[in-house]
Amino acid sequence: MFYWRVLLALTSMKPERIVAIDGPSGSGKGTVSRGVARALGWALLDSGALYRLVALAARQAGVSLDDEARLASIASDFDVRFDLAEDGEEAIWLSGRDVTRQIRTESAGGDASQVAQLKQVRAALLQRQRRFAEGPGLVADGRDMGSIVFPAAPVKIYLTASPEERAARRHKQLKEKGVTANLAALSLEIAERDRRDMNRAVAPLVAAPDAVSIDTTGMPIEAVVERILAIVRERLLI
Ligand code: C5P
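A: This is the predicted complex of the input protein with cytidine-5'-monophosphate.
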């Protein structure tokens, strides 16, 4: 009981209104989370973007990606804004500059996974992430949403897909955003990033014990969104 109260106090929203979606890169998390958030009319936390932004802000300030103390200070203070662009896509602003495209490259993802290994950076981003839990409800997308950031979330999903499909999806996504990428090189980069995310000492990528795993290989996005919405309904969230 006491433990439950502490968790409630830590997350400012009632836990019955949080859907935590975790999984490796290219598992479909981003698109699926956006679809679920839209369908429910809830807010979205793209936690990976926060790690990408810390790395970008560090690069802009000439801070090395292993300087834990300075990176943690960037993570606590950086000025970030998420909003919707005219085309309905997410737009991300760092210190008043639109960096949406810049943070989506695979090299920005690699930088993010380097800074994400650092304990002080994760600690600095923890409260920031929990502050997204306000309003009608939250769909939170990342690597440790169900295990660390929102451990009391009643719906936890772990998305996977075959390595080939994940690389192909990422490739398509980057192409659509006008970013050139080579599929073979991309596969290697993704494998390296996943290896780092799964093996790091702090908050490694794992399925929370109470998460529902969905293998999205060969599944259309809409079907994955529907499956999650069914779980949300079943657990009486809506
Ligand atoms: O999800 P996305 O590809 O934008 O994440 C970029 C990187 O940020 C991941 O590879 C991972 O290292 C890190 N990350 C994390 N914890 C999260 C979200 C992202 O460590 N909750």
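Residues 1-11 have pLDDT under 50 and may be disordered. The pocket of cytidine-5'-monophosphate is lined by residues 25, 47-49, 51-52, 109, 112-113, 116, 142-144, 193, 197 (CB under 6 Å).
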